[in-house]
Design goal:
single chain, 189 residues, alpha+beta
């Protein structure tokens, strides 16, 4: 073969063009569906991680917090802030955690009265009347005490004494993250 014939063969081979492959339409549709499912999964994972992080922070008004108000035989469960959607906590879990909180308050009744007695020594205006104190305590999902407040405020001595007392409170580890409110009647002794 001569050089000219080899060059012509190479030219002819080059003229055929590149090999073109076509994707199978079913494979393309399956790949698109897989990509869509993967994106949805990533969004769900992100939402779950955000909710878990919020729960681990113990609520703190982030939407994970639930307020359980206990007055007599009436138990009211609501989100921490107005306009937030209700949180799906089973009634059984709410009732059990509420009873645990009431037990903590009942066991602490003597210590609460001592805090009130300290307040009576500092404030003479409390001497002749009964006070209905609203005890609010927030617990994390681990059952650990997070924060407490008391209304009406009976002064720094009382609040300090009550916060020291409440810091010892704990609920079972499987309790939902909640804020409990319960009334306590205090009378001068």
């Amino acid at each position: 073969m001569t050089r000219t014939s080899i060059a012509i063969l190479l030219l002819l081979a080059a003229c055929k063009g590149e090999t073109v492959t076509k994707d199978n339409p079913q494979t393309v549709a399956d790949l698109d569906a897989c990509k869509k499912n993967l994106a949805e999964k990533d969004k769900r994972i992100e939402a779950e991680e955000a909710e878990n992080a919020s729960l681990l922070r113990g609520g703190g008004g982030s939407g994970a917090e639930i307020i359980v108000s206990i007055e007599g035989n009436v138990l009211t469960v609501k989100p921490a802030a107005d306009g937030e959607p209700p949180h799906p906590i089973p009634d059984k879990a709410t009732a059990a955690a509420s009873q645990e909180f009431l037990d903590l308050v009942a066991k602490s009744r003597g210590a609460i009265q001592k805090c009130y007695t300290l307040a009576l020594k500092k404030r003479s205006d409390l001497q002749a009347r009964t006070i209905t104190l609203t005890v609010s305590a927030t617990f994390a999902q681990s059952g650990a005490y997070h924060d407490a407040s008391f209304s009406p405020s009976l002064g720094d001595v009382f609040d300090s004494c009550m916060k020291t007392l409440a810091a010892k409170w704990a609920l079972p580890a499987n309790s939902p993250a909640m804020t409990f409110r319960a009334p306590v009647s205090l009378t001068p002794s």
